[in-house]
Amino acid sequence: MAGAIWAVAELGSDGLPTRLSCEAATAARLLGEGAGRAAAAVIVAPDPAAAAASLAEFVPRVIAIRAAGERGAGTCASAEAVLEAIADEEPDVLVLGATPEGREIAGILAARVGRGVLGNATGIAWGAGDDGAGPGPRVEMSVLGGRALTTSGFTDGRGIVTLRPNAVPATTTGISGTVEARATPSSPAQRTRVVARADAAARGASIEESQIVVAGGRGLGGPEGVALLEELAAALGAAVASTRAAVDAGWLPYASQVGQTGKTIRPSVYLGVGVSGAIQHRVGMQDAETIIAVNRDPDAPLAEHADLYVVGDLFEVVPALTAALRARTG
Predict the structure, then answer these.
(1) Which of 224, 217, 299 is CA-nearest to residue 262?
(2) Which of 250, 173, 236, 168 is nearest to 208 (CA)?
(3) How far apart are CA 74 and CA 80, in angstroms?
């Protein structure tokens, strides 16, 4: 349907849409509501029935395309399948997750249909700006290493957006949308063969989904500090996150990194331990409901943004806090 807004979903290792795909579907639906246009999501999978039914909770219409092969299509084949669907209906806006797969598919689609791309969106809404862009998606992006936020649009209102995790909360409609099954594309372009799909090994709870996140920075100093951080997280039932400095030092995995070059989180409680709070990290956690920090430096940037800022040595404060929590819970 011309003028429509579509989300392009990805599958997790469980064969269902990823959380980010549900967020992209929600974004497409909200854009459609704001513009008075139809919204839909497209999923490409070997057996898309279950994934499509799950996605239909977030968007009024799902186009379920059966992929060739038992393990699903590679990015090229998925892009070809989406291209065939686009040719039939010519949606104006496509929303994808800002993941390696999402970025690759977005690049292929942009080259093939001649659309511009606005990447790594931290927010998106329908509107018109005073910058020459006509009515269309207004896309908020973090630029200059996280030092500034910009809002951009497409001059003709048509384009492709890649969405960062947690930029738009995934919300269901309460009514299951319709699912339209489509056959395998006539030209599947199987240039790659998917051998297996698996999630990266998790280190505790997911930082994107946890309501309590404990993050460590350069102040951890090494493995000893990481051990204290993980003990505190266990006592709180929290997920363990990190700054880029802690990841670059090899103390914590990249999957735990929050910030400009990591993940965006919106927990109820964020507790930063040995985190200075540079803008590159803050852009990934500044929307937490409550921000608590422990740092020896009273003038660290995070002090200006924290609801509670404890000036002290983390190697004294964190063990005491962990002990108090354990005593409280028995």
Answers:
(1) 217
(2) 168
(3) 10
We report the CATH number of the domain holding residue 288 as: 3.40.50.1220
Say whether pTM exceeds 0.70.
yes
Q: Which two tokens stand for residue 284?
A: 């990934």
Closest CA to 135 of 119, 109, 155: 155
CA gap 108, 102 in Å, rounded: 10
Per-residue pLDDT of the chain (330 residues; tens, 9 = 90+): 568 999 999 988 788 999 999 999 999 999 999 999 999 999 998 889 999 999 999 999 999 998 865 545 578 888 888 999 998 889 999 999 998 899 999 999 999 999 999 998 989 999 876 655 568 899 998 777 666 788 999 988 899 999 988 889 999 999 999 999 988 766 545 555 666 655 555 555 678 888 999 999 999 999 999 999 999 999 999 999 999 999 999 999 998 999 888 888 889 999 999 999 998 899 889 889 999 999 999 999 999 999 999 999 999 999 999 999 999 876
40 near 62, Cβ under 8 Å? Answer: yes
32 with 178, same domain: the answer is yes
**For residue 190, is it within any domain?**
no
My answer on whether 9 and 115 are in the same domain is yes
Q: What is the CATH number of the domain that holds 94?
A: 3.40.50.620
CA–CA distance, 170 with 24 (Å, rounded to integer) = 8
Residue 136 CA from chain centroid, whole number: 22
Does 27 lie in the same domain as 174? Answer: yes
Same domain for 226 and 178: no
- Please give the structure tokens belonging to residue 314: 């983390």
Q: In terms of domains, do 137 and 277 share one?
A: no
AA letter at 88: D
Considering the domain architecture, whether residues 18 and 166 belong to the same structural domain is answered as yes
Structural domain boundaries, residue 33: 5-182
Residue 155 and residue 63 share a domain: yes
Q: In this structure, is residue 244 part of a structural domain? A: yes
CB proximity list for 291: less than 8 A, separation 6 or greater: 270, 272, 285, 302, 305, 306, 307, 308
Cβ-based neighbours of 152, under 8 Å, separated by 6 or more: 118, 131, 133, 138, 139, 141
